Amino acid sequence: MSVAQGVDIEIESENITEYRSLQKGDQIAVEGEMSGIEYYHHGIFLGHRKGVADFGGNNKRDARPRIVDILQFTEYGKRRLIRLKYPSGQCLPPEVVVENAKKLVENPDRWGVYDLLNNNCEHFATKCKTGVAVSRQVIDSIRKCIMNPLQAIRYSVASSGSCGSSFSGSLTKS
């Protein structure tokens, strides 16, 4: 079942400074940077004392759906944490979001191998949250490359990095 109808819906983000404000089923992300390009690494908050489901690993070849501690996800508070806020009616219920994430962690072969453009951490998190696997960061980056072909060179260098890297996208900060 999917809720999201398109990739051009406006999604806001909210800075999270206290982990206790997180709610089960939240789509969260942390800032990162690789080769001068900023990106967000996405996951689904499963609940306090339960961790975060994300799609990652030590490198792209061993990337898989997994559960990590919130401290590991934020690199012990070194990476800024945000919560994505979708418009009303664009998300699945929190219990379904958590169940979707757990099912993919329990059966990682159902998710597939890492691919920056087609199957990254944001695809994973939006699939769990909305039912549709979309990476707005990838879409936004492709649009930028069309407008400025030299940008494609920067992105190709960044895409050769460690797992969890994808491009910063169309999030608005609240």
Which key features would you list for this structure?
174 residues, alpha+beta, endopeptidase fold (from Nostoc punctiforme), seven-stranded mixed beta sheet, 5 helices, 7 strands, 25% strand, globular, disordered N terminus, disordered C terminus, LRAT_dom, LRAT domain-containing protein
Structure in words:
- By secondary structure, this protein is of the alpha+beta class.
- It has a single domain, classed as Alpha-Beta Complex (endopeptidase fold (from Nostoc punctiforme)), CATH 3.90.1720.
- The chain has helices spanning 70-73, 94-106, 121-130, 136-147, 150-158; strands spanning 11-16, 27-34, 37-47, 51-56, 64-68, 81-85, 171-173.
- A 7-stranded mixed sheet has the order 5-4-3-2-6-1-7.
- A hairpin with a 7-residue loop joins strand 4 (51-56) and strand 5.
- Helix 2 (94-106) packs across helix 3 and helix 4 runs antiparallel to helix 5 (150-158).
- The protein is globular, with a radius of gyration of 15 Å.
